[in-house]
Design a protein that fits this description.
Elements: E1 13-15, E2 22-24, E3 28-32, H1 36-41, E4 51-55, E5 60-62, E6 66-69, E7 76-78, E8 80-86, E9 102-109, E10 112-113, H2 114-123, H3 128-131, E11 137-139, E12 143-144, H4 145-148, E13 155-160, E14 163-169, H5 177-187, E15 195-197, E16 205-206, E17 212-217, E18 223-230
The structure holds manganese (II) ion.
The site of manganese (II) ion has 8 residues, from strand 3.
Length: 232
């Protein structure tokens, strides 16, 4: 083993329901513009293909507890999404084999600095400032396929302080999960430990310090986080 000059960062992981073993996270891929109603609320072009971007792995926040209101934004948005966790991968995975690579599923949040997204879009700038900031990827425990089966329908539901803000069936995704995996693998060699945020339905909005955020999907472990004081 190499002798590092600095303390090496710890492997980021997620809990697995019904197991003491952990899921080591390698990369976080995200799909944008994957529900028509959300594209319409964002006034985006309905004919564009869904967007692919990444978040840094250390943006993961596990279930529960506070996440600070981030620096460098005044319009901090939630996007509740179904998260797919991969046990294997490769390049150019055919759509009809894609589901064989799924380890399990979780609910998660693609937290977004919406003010900077507008600026990035307008100026054609990269998305790290809007999507890839610290603690921007809360993800709940992973439920293995052996417990929940392959998911092709079911409702993603999200509430703030008990008030429902998002509720949509994943069958409304423009790109289905097997298509997402296949398309991603045309661009990247997917690997065990990769997770994919599959896009948010309509109903996105801003949250502030003190808000309690609940993500839910029938058959999966729910996730709750609370927005804490501004990061310092
Ligand atoms: Mn998203």
């Amino acid at each position: 083993m190499a002798a590092y000059a600095l303390t090496a960062p710890a492997q980021v992981h997620l809990d697995i329901t019904g197991s003491d073993e952990k899921f080591p996270v390698r990369r976080i891929y995200c799909i944008g513009k994957n529900y028509l109603a959300h594209i319409r609320e964002m006034n985006a072009d309905e004919r564009d293909p869904p967007v692919i971007f990444m978040k840094p792995t250390d943006a993961i926040v596990k279930n529960g507890g506070d996440i600070p209101y981030p620096v460098f934004t005044n319009n901090y948005h939630y996007e509740c999404e179904l998260v797919v966790a991969l046990k294997s991968g490769g390049y150019n995975i055919p759509e009809d084999e894609a589901e064989d690579h799924i380890f399990g599923y979780a609910v998660g949040l693609d937290m977004t600095r919406r003010d900077h997204q507008a600026e990035a879009l307008a100026k054609g700038l990269p998305w790290e400032v809007t999507k890839g900031f610290d603690q921007s990827a809360p993800v709940g425990p992973i439920t293995p396929v052996s417990d929940c089966g392959i998911l092709r329908s079911g409702h993603v539901r999200f509430s703030v302080n008990g008030q429902v803000k998002q509720d949509a069936d994943i069958s409304l995704m423009i790109w289905k999960i097997n298509e997402i995996i296949s398309k991603l693998s045309e661009q990247h060699r997917l690997m065990p430990g990769d997770i994919i945020m599959t896009g948010t339905p309509a109903g996105v909005g801003a949250v502030v310090t003190g808000d309690v955020l609940d993500c839910h999907f029938d058959g999966l472990q729910p996730m709750q986080v609370r927005i804490g004081a501004k990061a310092a």
